[in-house]
Amino acid sequence: MPEESFQFKVSTVRSAAAIFAEPFLKKPLRIFLRKKGLSIKEKPPVDYVFDLVGDAAAQNLAKIGEAKYLRVLLGENESFTPLAGLNWRVIRTDFIVSPKTPTESFLGKMVYASLKDQPFPLSASETEIYPLCIDDLAAACWQALVLPQTAEKEFLILGKPENLSTVAKFVESLGQMTEKFSFSPSKALFHYNLKESEKSAKFLNWEVENDWRQSLEKTFHFYYKTFGIHKEKTITLPKKEIDKIEVERQIEQKEVSEKPHLPFAKKPEISTKPPVSTLKKSFSEEIIVIDEKANIKNEEKQKTERIISLFKEKKETPEKSEKRIPKHYCFLPIIFGFFLIIFFTWLKPTISLVLGAKNFKESLPLFSGQNWAKGEVKIKKAKRYFKTAEVFSKENPFKFFLFGAEIIFARFAETGKIAAEAAETAVPLLENAAVLGEAVLKDQTFDFKNNLPLIKTAAAELFWQFSRLQTAAESSWKFLPKRWQKDKPSIFTKIKEAKDFAQKTEKLSEHLLWFLGADGKKKTFLVLLQNSNELRPTGGFIGSFALLTFDDGSLTDFEVKDVYVADGQLKGHVEPPKQIKEILGEETWYLRDANWDPDFPISAKNIAWFLKKELGREVDGVIAFNLEAAKKIVSAFGEIYLPDFGEKISETNLFERAEFWSENQFFPGSNQKSAFLSTLTKQLLENIKSGKPEDFLKIFKALVSSLDEKEMMIFARETKIEKALQSLNWDGAVRSPACSAANCFSDFRFLVEANLGINKANYFVQQTAEEAITVGSDYTLNHRLTINYENTATSNNCPGGTYTNWLRIYLPQAAKIEKVRIFNPLMPQDEQIIGKDKREEEIKNTKKIVGFLVRVPVRERRTVEITFSQKPKIAGKNFGYLLYWQKQSGAKTMPLSLLVSFPENWQPVQVTPEANLVSGKLLFNKQLNKDSNFGVEFNK
Q1: How far apart are CA 388 and CA 378, in angstroms?
Q2: CATH 2.60.40 domain position(s) in the chain
Q3: What does residue 266 show for φ and ψ, rounded to 5 degrees?
Q4: 442: pLDDT confidence band, cut at 50, 70 and 90?
Q5: 767 pLDDT band (50/70/90 cuts)?
Q6: Which one is the CATH code of 742-939: 3.90.1070, 2.40.160, 2.60.40, 3.40.50?
Q7: Residues of CATH 3.40.50.720 domain(s) within the chain?
Q8: 3-227: which CATH topology?
Q9: At a CB cut-off of 8 Å and minimum separation 6, what does 199 contact?
Q10: C-alpha distances out from residue 312 to 123, 303, 380, Å
């Protein structure tokens, strides 16, 4: 089987990043990352490394700390060679603009030439360049690091294409150049593949949001302050400022003529040409005029200012004697205006956020009720309000009156906007899914070849949007009131489930043509109706089965058969496995017991072989369907009425009624055993076929949940379909996980039970598991695995009775078994040692399988304890340990506790999932309802 790769998750409260970049890029990038909730560090440990200069120390830092590493390459000439084992990704970009763009860059040279009014030859005027603001580059870098499936990929990130002549004209206007830029086709620029850039932007779910003109203008002002103006350089003021200065000059002339006694020898010379440059002081009306051609001396400027001040004093002197208003009253309008500005500054983003959340909340029940049109109107309003709040928080000129809260407003607004965009994408996806469901179940028209790719594209887009939402929510959640913090786990769980659901929908949609027979070939599937109350290796005893046929995209046939009727038609003798023969007492192997191998693809092939031998039918795939899966589908409808039994079946009474009717007047060869389950299955199908469109999504979610929790498993004969099922972990195969980190040991557990007591004892059996793992200083691993059983049945009459369990424990091949014992926890001294002569051991597919019989009498408890050791080959200061625990199909959700002990001088630096540190030991507690992995990394 293909190996799976797992990476540890960092369990720190606040993620950290290291930035290796030039100052003009480092500062804006640092500001961006801090807004995302990251701390900026230059020493380990860090989670992300941004390298914009190709510093070798950056790669070393990322590799040592196993951080995600991003290399930004500027232009086409730069190259990148990663260190072995580095978790890297690359962004190639060009034409970056920041408030302090360096003069050696292409755009920096243009701005500098504009400031100095110097010639600067450019390439052909029609050449396209791609100015990119540093904030947009930072957003792309962030997406490349946080989104999944970006490792070891290169992305091309560019701004929107602009003609070089357009950029040149704008830069010329900044400096009012007299020496215009010249164009020389011989000066070549880099040419980039825009399709590759668009593909990268779509993959990262990124787009340009900032205007490069604003950044170039800031660069010009920065150059002006830094380099000044060349002595022959003249720059013209905007018209509004020219008019203001002309008024002042007219005042000067008027006052000089009316007041000859003023101490001026002559009028100051006033230039008839517009002034050449001004610099505004922040929050001031003062204007400094620089006019070298007019050659106004400092003394004359001072005299002119005195004339203006005298004129203003004259205007302010009342001509008539009247009562003056107290001076402090004059400030009241200013104070009132100040508080009014503050009020409205807070009011707009607050109202926008509230209205956005209100419309978003109101859209959800509309979508649930399939009222797509009204729901879409609401979600568009929500998106508009969130966007208004986001833009206002970022660009409001009075945002400093928010006293730092503008960052919080912007984050909440961004999160809401992304959620609204995800809902917008989900609408056509859900509409198409509903139409698809009706087409399959009600034989309606549906263009599979054209519409399935649309579903796939929408699902892929939805996955990236939920990834963005998850990232945005993580950076914003800490700013919410504490009373809302308790909802964080459930909200983030729903986001993760929605993201996984979208990803699985995307993968599944690729192969629906094959499954539904819409590829021109009819498909037939064998559905095993397994009773998990009589647990068997692939989920339960096969009491009955169904044959499901799809043709041209529609369900054309569904027939349920009793397994004993089919087994009665087997000709010849098939030797059964040893345990079925000796414990169950079956001399011949039949279809009903053919699911003996817990590796479902192997059992599915055996079952399909028996079906062909017994009924002469061939199938394209095999589907295992347990009672728990039926329970999930029943819950989608609330309850199911079975007229033949006069029963209303709900998710709360399904197991109890199944046991009552499956055992009522049963004897081998009769149809009573399968009657209830087959009738329930048929009625479920009828309810699904007659269901409303809003029911289809619930049913689909129930099926996906059942596949994730191993209550359903699928085997397909088609190789490419089987590989897709493997990638989703829906094939039921025994996994072979691997740890991707260096100096890491991958461990494995799989408990497989088979009820051979000819009863339904699993309905009454409660089970827990505990494992103590001791890690030695020489990396030796000592294990004590404990499995606790309690049989709550009150009598030996069916469906209860002694739990006769052939237990198989899957361990790594190199595990050394030391002791196996079974005892009553109420009388631990009364133990049964399971020696080598009483247990079976075999090596199969790199696993050591230990099998033995466990009996749990009615109203009693039993504990199975197995001790073993392992010695991984590890060298280095760090040690990683990964334990993958596979859940058996049909097994109940089992409480699992893991206690990991380690030397005192070791420090756990990364843990997944969250664990408690108890007396210097790590304690994991988990409800095992699906395959789970546990990981910890130590530093010595």
Answers
A1: 15
A2: 742-939
A3: -160, 165
A4: confident
A5: very high
A6: 2.60.40
A7: 3-227
A8: Rossmann fold (3.40.50)
A9: none
A10: 54, 14, 54
Q: Each residue of 688-719: b (16+ CB within 10 Å) or e?
A: beebeeebbbbbbebbbbbbbbbbbbbbbeee
Token couple for 489: 């786990």
C-beta contacts of 646-651 below 8 A and 24+ residues apart: 649/680
What integer pLDDT is reported at residue 881 of this predicted model?
Answer: 93
Q: Given this model, what pLDDT does residue 59 score?
A: 87
Poorest-confidence range of 14-28, 238-252, 545-559, 593-607? 238-252
Rounded CA-CA distance 926/930 in Å is 10
Overall pTM surpassing 0.70 (yes/no): no
Question: 707 and 713 in contact (C-beta within 8 Å)?
Answer: yes
Q: Could you give the residue range(s) of every CATH 3.40.630 domain in the chain?
A: 520-728
- The pLDDT of residue 516 is 92
Structure tokens at 46: 């860090």
Structure token pair of residue 268: 């100051």
Distances (CA, A) of 539 to 187, 587, 597, 628: 71, 23, 11, 10
**Sheet strand arrangement including 916-918:** 827-833, 816-824, 861-870, 781-791, 765-775, 894-901, 921-928, 916-918
What is the radius of gyration, based on Cα positions, of the chain? 37
Architecture of domain 520-728: 3-Layer(aba) Sandwich (3.40)
Q: pLDDT confidence of 175, banded at 50, 70, 90?
A: confident
Exposure of 601 by Cβ count < 10 A (0-12 exposed, 13-18 middle, 19+ buried)? buried
Q: How many CB atoms lie within 10 A of CB 485?
A: 11
Confidence of residue 90 (pLDDT cuts 50, 70, 90): very high
Q: Average pLDDT of 564-589?
A: 94
